[in-house]
Target: DUF306 domain-containing protein
Amino acid sequence: MKVRIALATVLALALAGCAGDGPNAPVDPAAPADTGPISLVGLWTVADAGEEAGTVLRIAPKKQLSLWRTCGALTGSWAAAQDLFLGELTSGGENCQPVENPSWLRDASGYQSVGDTKILVDRNGKQLARLVPGGKPKVGSGVDPAEAAPPVITDEDRAELTRTPQVPATLTRVEPTQIVGRWVPVAAGGRAYVEFKDDRTWTGSDGCNGNGGRWTATGSSMLATAGPSTLIACDGAPVPAWLTSTAAAGLADGVLVLLDPTGAEVARLKKG
Model:
């Protein structure tokens, strides 16, 4: 009898071990949780921000951002680094006009993690909003439900969102105070320029089209978002596209060098 019980126990343990390797295996509680920008991807209920109950912020790969209110959705873009976050709403349905960035999003420069909750903070670390995991956007007629579904992260997205730009040793660390001011492309850019303001907004032009947005930086990391722009053909320089592609920056003999998430050089700017 003891031999039968022992064999049954061994068989049960073996079957349990096999089941744990299957597609429905439980998540290992000791596995490290995602951190950094990838941890922001998802559906978040916005709390403590003065929003109407049930407002949901959807943060998706490819810099897709949408804020879901009773009127519908406002859409835009986002950018993030390890502790930095920027969001910019640029368009919305006719029921959500005019398109305005709420103060909690407009002033957000970073984020903190408290358990599963994300805290958006301004440049001084003041709390602006709590993002609580989960939430179900109110989808109106004529809207593709996929636009409000929980975002899916592909292997390509994961690689992009977990990539840390490598700043070349030839560049020196740049502080936010050194970025403030007016800059022009080192290469010929006509009347193209960008002016970084101390309040973390920027204005500029590709030489024909005016634009603006927000920026933030710390250490070697630098991020920027851009608002809507006219589309006049121009022989200047694509300054707004440069800024929204930037993930890091450094100085080389007073020249501001912008780098993308892979560490590749985007552009060089000099004080103008």
Remarks:
- The chain is about 15% helix and 35% strand.
- The longest helix spans residues 2-19.
